[in-house]
Structure prediction request, 674 residues.
Amino acid sequence: MDGIARIAVAEVERAVAAALRRAGCDGENAAAVAGVVAAAERDGCASHGVFRLGGYLAALRSGKVDGAARPAVSRLAPSVLRVDARGGFAPLAMEAARAQLAPLAREQGIAAAALVDAHHFSALWADVEPLAADGLVALCMTSYMPAVAPAGARVPFFGTNPMAFAWPRAGGASLVIDQASAAMARGEVMLAAREGRTLPPGVGVDASGSPTCDPAEVLKGAILPFGGHKGSGIALMVELMAGALIGQAFSVETAAADNRDGGPPRGGIFLLAIDPARFGDAGGWLDHAEGFLARLSALEGVRLPGDRRAANRKRSDAEGVEIPAKLWAEVLAAAGT
Amino acid sequence: MDGIARIAVAEVERAVAAALRRAGCDGENAAAVAGVVAAAERDGCASHGVFRLGGYLAALRSGKVDGAARPAVSRLAPSVLRVDARGGFAPLAMEAARAQLAPLAREQGIAAAALVDAHHFSALWADVEPLAADGLVALCMTSYMPAVAPAGARVPFFGTNPMAFAWPRAGGASLVIDQASAAMARGEVMLAAREGRTLPPGVGVDASGSPTCDPAEVLKGAILPFGGHKGSGIALMVELMAGALIGQAFSVETAAADNRDGGPPRGGIFLLAIDPARFGDAGGWLDHAEGFLARLSALEGVRLPGDRRAANRKRSDAEGVEIPAKLWAEVLAAAGT
Prediction:
């Protein structure tokens, strides 16, 4: 069972969808979740790929997540949508949110969606990239369960609290910045633990608050914020925007309410969309940014955010993705094939 | 001339306003700028206090800034304002922006202002705090002249690119996070150079790209982003939001257009306001956040962002502020008193 399997992206998507349907998802929810899982594998983001399938399945089996939930969209204010995921996985609710948020942003110039009662377990770039591909600037934030120690503290309190920003490009893939406010995403720490790798210094502390490079010890202790008190500031902003602002739980409350089945807890997501054509430079903004990005990427040593993902995507579409054979066998078993 | 002068905050404001008027500001612009300068001294933010007066005055004398500019507000889209500072200092334009952005955010749920052709030289928290005091969540970004090396590079390309976030509190001062995406604000590096202090490691590199703790060498070289590639990602987002999105210059373009008189260059500011009462938990969001912030600040070692500013403010209002005597003498001379 050791070794690496090379699998076509479409086959990853098919198998994951089949496994989700077997565990209780309806077709639409299974397709939406399988889409973001396969996209993560395709883009080289293994920490949010099929590695997460076990958590999705556990959350269906425990009854925490409703695999047949239908999101409901309502309008809270002229430029604000509420998207109730009704206890389902986030991807289908995200699709519903984007479908109404994009035209609303074009009409209003800027608009936001409060996604509530969603179970989010995927990479955040997958949520904002479609908006940028549609010509909109997007910003998204979500919290999670406590994993990160606020600056100065030594115990987990913030979630890893990612923030993703997407900017439309003139050609090819959008520019997407997706970063946890943790020094390392929890999924990466989990993956390092699973694969027996050590962490770089400065990523986390153990249960006693002492620095450690052992991912298993960090998972019992706390991850540190990136960049000290500034990363901690970002984490705090994310808690407030994806928590109290939209009437959803803070990470510490999320943990208290979760059944610990290993799947994604219930929580909220803040999603913002901006139409650059309504901000004063309708004819020029795109080329203006392209010129700037060309100058930036011409600097020695610089790689644009998302460049690696784009390269992985191209290769994966041509050659398939590499997945540990043992993990892939688990996926196939769950899919009943 | 050595030593420290202790000055009442109102006297700082009066002297700065007088100096600005003598150099060509009209009363309204002088009052708006003097307000943010005095607020910076009051809150212990010396890098944006009277230390900056020389730059303000230079920009008036060179004719780069119009000290009698009247900002003009127009509506670009239902939820988007354009605030044309018309080549004046930012503070009066910010006042005009907030006056119309606050009611628009209440009406629409969320609204943004594109401030253009403004000369911004003050601390960003001063721009967002009044919105939070008014019950709104606020987010603000602006770029500057190249000072920060993008992650992987060793030459200045990004501005120090601050982002400020403000959250209303139930009592007392609002929570305000204001952080440069540089490892250290350029004003702090300038102040360290002026006062002959060395910098902590990791703040910057010299003109040859080598690490240095000498602030004068860093000012000739580049400041590093905070938190490596993640801080660099924030800096890039700020460039795009305060640049191409609103039809304003990127930091590299700003520098090319500036006359190098030492005063603030012309540029844009992105300002966002959100009414939490329109996001789904109108009755609960404030107390919900207060409970969370109480838990956070109860953690050992944690200080909430802005706590130090609030303490400084209280002390300054009672005891006045401490300003190097030589600098204060320069202020008085400029004020003609």
In short: Chain A has one domain: 4-182+225-295+302-309+317-335. Chain A touches chain B through 68 residues (CB under 8 Å). The first helix of chain A runs from residue 9 to 22. Residues 98 and 131 of chain A are 7 Å apart (CA to CA).
